[in-house]
Amino acid sequence: MPSPAHGEPAGRKGGGQLSTPRLRIDTPERAGLDADELWHLAREVRALTTGPRPWAPGVVLVAGRGPVIAVEEAAGWAVRYASYDETADAGRELPAEARVPAGVDTPFDLASLTKLFTAVAAVQQLERGTLGIDARVGAYLPEFPGVRDHGVTVRQLLTHTSGLRPELPLHDCPDDAARLALLRAEAPSSERGVHRYSDLNLIYLQFVLERVSGRPLDVLVRDGITRPLGMNATAFGPCPGAAATEDQRRPWGKADRGMLRGVVHDENAWALGGVAGHAGLFSTARDLAVFCRALLAGGSYGPARILGPDFVDLLLAPPGLGFAVDQPRFMGALAGGGAAGHTGFTGTSLVVDPVTGTFLVLLANTVHPRRRPADNAPRAAAATRLRRAVRGT
């Protein structure tokens, strides 16, 4: 598939490019998937919302292969609790008539799945030649001595090998000037070149992208990714109809904000105004299935192209640029052949597998009414079930 001429905006159809088939809802058999395995997958997802201590109040699943969505399932509640009761260590349930059921079109706070969109926006700039993968961040942000003086590169931000610590308490700063001063001064605290997952990497990448493009991140994501792909339910917040997340209070939270719905859960993304490189997007499972399909189709969907195939390969090839690759902890049996994806703190996950052509989107509000230690077992189990459904393997 030919790449467009240098400088053509991503998301526009290149000359002579054929249209990529759009997603359609069809039978598992038409997707080359086993119907019994997908029946079990849907049943297991429904079970995640039941019992006295459900994995999540609400869960939405979309999975398929190639251009086919073979299973869609929504279960439980997008909004179930009014607050969290510390004494009882349980949620205070809303009256039945006030609860909101989860549906396949319910938006969720994506949390760290936002990183995938920031990564795609970065690779779009690589494709245009406005950004260098091994360029030093200080070349774009000379007023940030912390990363400038230590030679942190764009690749290191994208692969979490910059040596930056996981986060900074931006949510405790009194104003934007104090937050910016903290970010400018921050330097790597561990060895560069060694993987250390950090939200800061994507926050600095946001600053780089906004500097080289002259546009804010939300505009880059909208104009370069979601609008051309027709992902009309995907955007940075606020998103009033979204599934609720946490009754966010100290000491378990890092801010006292009460029950959150439609505003970003991540405290630092909230402090940055709701638009951040590491968190802030809201989306639906159906929209994310389109994003998956575009990646698996070499960067194209319908008549739109958001990346050329070579740049999709660069994005997804181990160790992945923004994407995690072959991680059994949440990819289950899909891991091992180049599967790529990510998880989000609020209960979200996404996996694409170029080998089988399959995709899996699992959205949940596991932090409703309060955050608990992450449990990836249901994500891994769902991915394993999908892998077993692939016929001929």
Would you write up a description of this structure?
The chain is an alpha+beta fold. The protein has one domain (1-393): Beta-lactamase. The chain is 31% helix and 19% strand. It has 13 helices and 17 strands. It has helices at residues 35-47, 114-128, 137-140, 145-148, 154-158, 176-185, 199-213, 217-229, 267-271, 285-296, 309-316, 328-331, 377-389, and strands at 24-25, 58-65, 68-79, 81-85, 90-93, 100-101, 108-109, 235-236, 244-248, 258-261, 281-283, 300-301, 304-305, 324-325, 340-344, 348-353, 358-364. Strands 1, 2, 3, 6, 14, 15, 16 and 17 form an eight-stranded mixed beta sheet that branches. Strands 7-11-8 form a three-stranded antiparallel beta sheet. Helix 1 runs antiparallel to helix 13, helix 2 (114-128) crosses helix 8 (217-229) and helix 2 packs across helix 11. The longest helix is centred in the first third of the chain and has 15 residues, at 114-128.
How many strands appear in the DSSP assignment? 17
Number of helices: 13
- Structural class, please? alpha+beta
Q: Uncertain spans, ≥5 residues at pLDDT below 50? A: 1-16
Strand content: 15-25%
Helix content: 25-40%
CATH class: Alpha Beta
End-to-end Cα distance, whole Å, is 28 Å
Largest sheet: 8 strands, mixed
Architecture, according to CATH? 3-Layer(aba) Sandwich
Characteristic terms for this protein:
single chain, 393 residues, alpha+beta, Beta-lactamase, 8-stranded mixed beta sheet, 3-stranded antiparallel beta sheet, 13 helices, disordered N terminus
